[in-house]
Amino acid sequence: MCMAFYETGFDTKAIDRHKGGSKDYGIFHINSGLWCKENSALSKAICDVACSDLLNPDLEDDITCAKKIVKGSAGMAAW
Questions:
Q1: Which SMART domains is this protein grouped with (predicted)?
Q2: Distance between CA 79 and CA 75 in Å, rounded?
Q3: Over the stretch 28-37, which tens digit does the pLDDT of each residue have?
């Protein structure tokens, strides 16, 4: 919960653009370069979820993806 507060202030519609072209989406700021599907061939979409689906108040897909990120080798350092 602390990470969501500090990343977005609990804003489910948050989008942050990076210089490299990727974006962070939703309450957990899930990155389009690795985790969610964007209209870009560069997106790996490891969570197999559309980035736009991370911008609604239904947090089920956001939580599922965040758990997958945390279980990865970088853990919480992924943020």
A1: LYZ1
A2: 9
A3: 999 999 999 9
- Contact call for residues 30 and 51 (beta carbons, < 8 A): yes
Q: Per the residue annotation, which of 7, 38, 61, 62 is the catalytic one? A: 7
Exactly one of 11, 16, 24, 61 is catalytic; name it: 24
Contact (CB, 8 A) for 24 and 43: no
- List pLDDT tens digits, range 8-27: 999 999 999 999 889 999 99
| Active site annotation includes 7 | yes
Size of the chain in residues: 79
Classified as helix, coil or strand, 43 is coil
